[in-house]
Amino acid sequence: xxxxxxxxxxxxxxxxxxxxxxxxxxxxxxxxxxxxxxxxxxxxxxxxxxxxxxxxxxxxxxxxxxxxxxxxxxxxxxxxxxxxxxxxxxxxxxxxxxxxxxxxxxxxxxxxxxxxxxxxxxxxxxxxxxxxxxxxxxxxxxxxxxxxxxxxxxxx
Length: 156
What we know:
Layout: H1 4-43, H2 46-77, H3 81-116, H4 123-148, H5 151-155
């Protein structure tokens, strides 16, 4: 039979696991949003751009869930040291991912404007997809490092 302390530790581990899963889900959605926004820009796909804007609400909702869970974990579990750092890191990462989603949404908003204005001929626009790919890869690598709790990978 499990003791009260074992039950508390299991519940805490479950909460941390849920936080990691939410951050990972947010990250995946943000990566997809960046890719889709750039694809919409390249192809002048206003329907895809509209979908990117709609999906931003999902990223926002998950961030709110991360915040709520983190506050609950801090209030009920009183984590210390590494555990507290992980909860705080999840909060900070979620905020950054939410901002990435906002950037993708803002790119998607510009799709009709860029092509209407004939800006697609400007050379700088041609480097955006490569920049977006590099940014997506960096986000992916950092989130993998967070999930694995691998500080060296996060630094690289």
